[in-house]
Specification:
The chain is an alpha+beta fold. It has four domains: 3-66; 72-181, 2-Layer Sandwich (Beta-Lactamase); 188-257, Helix Hairpins (Orthogonal Bundle), CATH 1.10.287.130; 261-425, Heat Shock Protein 90 (2-Layer Sandwich), CATH 3.30.565.10. 51% of the residues lie in helices and 18% in strands. It has helices at residues 3-33, 38-66, 72-85, 104-109, 126-138, 183-218, 225-257, 269-279, 281-287, 305-322, 373-378, 385-395, and strands at residues 90-94, 99-102, 142-148, 154-163, 174-181, 266-268, 290-294, 300-302, 328-337, 343-351, 399-404, 410-417. The strands form three sheets. The protein has a five-stranded antiparallel β-sheet with strand order 2-1-5-4-3, sandwiched between helices. Strands 7-9-10-12-11 form a five-stranded mixed β-sheet. A hairpin with a 5-residue loop joins β11 and β12 (410-417). The termini are far apart. Bound molecules: adenosine-5'-triphosphate and magnesium ion (MG). Adenosine-5'-triphosphate binds next to α10 and α12.
Length: 425
């Protein structure tokens, strides 16, 4: 119902009240003065009051006939109840853009939205205000995608849907505005684009080197056996790098595919850690680093043996590569409890190297993220190691914590829910 119709109805109601009061006063006066017997006065008053009521009803009926809009009060209660129960942020507006109903989710998006106030006062998004006006005037659904910077970068799509109470109505009675948060979708799109760009870049570098050496071997170095041996060694190294990158990428997508399936085989972490340390002995010796394992008691978790080997391989290898300056790496196994108080196995890998500046810490587990790209590449790294660690631990319902400060080394701790208590050997 529009504002003009509202007003007409209100003034009719006022007239009816005044008329009924006047009639009551007139009949009472006549009865008191003895001009009319009391029963006749009461009957006369009843007739006048009924006529007033019928006249008002018919005025309302005519109004409805002139503009096919239903009664406002009970319908608005229903509208408010429906809007409140919808799962998305929704605002219902009248044809003039005033808020009829708004649910809590929409209020969280735009806390200043007030029932009865024009939406244009609160939502200062010109394209959206125009879309509401268009939807109300043309009766056509409108879609608006917009971006908000404050308080956080967010993308929204708003669907503005004109609604008619009766199928035969020529113009909409109100407009429903539904907000969809597109931010997670946009982020995934951005991540996918970044991922493809990074992966191609990482592959292109060794591929360019291989092509360069092949050309040299076909040309100037064709008869030079010494150069050939040297180049072939470099080519082999580059080809291995590409193979490792592809291997890591395939592992990542396999782990992601299985992310919802928690491994269910009990595995002991102690022998895994020892196996990893033994496997990296040559690297440790090359770097002049001693690896100490503290408290290698049996510690059982539900896990995938090979994936857990991969986790500790990445962490110990990083400690040996990037923390070599500290000449020592300590691996410690222990029991602790999670933030929720659940028992968990904790395995920490500590190095005494240069450490990591705080601004890098939250990003270390992103794919291809490296603090120093040149150094990582020189060490044969692709920047996928910690991303793999994070995904494997997620699948195991565990997590990785990192503590570090420049100059103070780094501690990477794996937290995994335990199923069996520690049994000292
Ligand atoms: N113990 C550490 N001390 C200092 N920096 C570290 C340490 N561990 C990791 N980093 C930094 O984090 C970055 C990301 O590590 P990550 O294991 O994901 O990749 P990578 O080692 O470069 O490559 P990959 O593991 O694929 O061989 C590293 O490039 C390095 O800059
Ligand atoms: Mg690594």
């Amino acid at each position: 119902m529009s504002l003009a119709e509202d007003r007409a109805l209100l003034s009719a109601r006022r007239w009816r009240s005044a008329f009924v009061i006047l009639a009551a006063a007139a009949f009472a006066a006549m009865a008191t003065a003895g001009a009319l017997a009391v029963p006749y006065a009461i009957a006369g008053f009843a007739v006048v009051a009924t006529v007033a009521l019928v006249l008002l009803r018919s005025a309302r009926g005519q109004n409805r006939f002139a503009a096919p809009i239903a009664d406002v009060e009970p319908d608005d209660d229903l509208l408010r109840a429906v809007v409140a129960g919808l799962p998305d942020p929704v605002v219902a507006l009248d044809r003039d853009g005033r808020v009829l109903a708004v649910n809590d989710r929409a209020r969280r998006l735009a806390p200043a939205l007030r029932q009865g106030e024009p939406v244009a006062l609160t939502l200062r998004i010109p394209e959206l205000i125009e879309a509401i006006a268009r939807a109300a005037a043309e009766g056509e659904e409108q879609r608006v995608v917009y971006f908000e910077r404050v308080p956080l970068d967010r993308w929204y799509e708003t669907i503005v849907m004109p609604v008619k109470r009766a199928a035969t109505a020529t113009s909409p009675d109100f407009v429903l505005m539904t907000f969809h948060d597109l931010t997670p979708l946009r982020r995934v799109e951005e991540m996918r684009a970044d991922f493809v760009a990074n992966a191609s870049h990482e592959l292109r570098t060794p591929l360019a080197a291989l092509l360069g050496f092949i050309e040299t071997l076909q040309g100037s170095a064709r008869e030079d056996s010494k150069a050939r041996a040297r180049f072939l060694a470099i080519m082999q190294e580059q080809a291995r790098r590409m193979a490792r990158l592809i291997d890591d990428l395939l592992s990542l997508s396999r782990i992601e595919l299985n992310a919802h399936r928690r491994p269910d085989t009990p595995v002991d972490l102690a022998p895994i850690v020892r196996q990893v340390a033994d496997g990296l002995e040559t690297l440790a010796r090359d770097r002049g680093v001693t690896v100490n394992i503290d408290n290698a008691n049996a510690m059982s978790v539900l896990g995938d043996h090979d994936e857990l080997v991969r986790v500790f391989e990445n962490l110990v290898e990083n400690a040996l590569k990037y923390g070599a300056a500290g000449r020592r790496v300590d691996i410690k196994l222990g029991q602790g409890s999670s933030a929720e108080g659940e028992p968990e196995a904790q395995v920490s890998v500590r190095d005494y190297g240069p450490g990591i500046a705080p601004e890098h810490l939250p990003r270390l587990t992103e794919r291809f993220y490296r603090v120093d790209v040149t150094e990582s590449r020189a060490q044969g790294g692709t920047g996928l190691g910690l991303a793999l660690v994070k995904h494997i631990l997620n699948r195991h319902r565990g997590r990785l914590t990192i503590e570090s400060a420049p100059g103070a080394g780094a501690v990477f701790t794996v937290h995994l829910p335990t199923v069996v208590k520690v049994h000292p050997r």
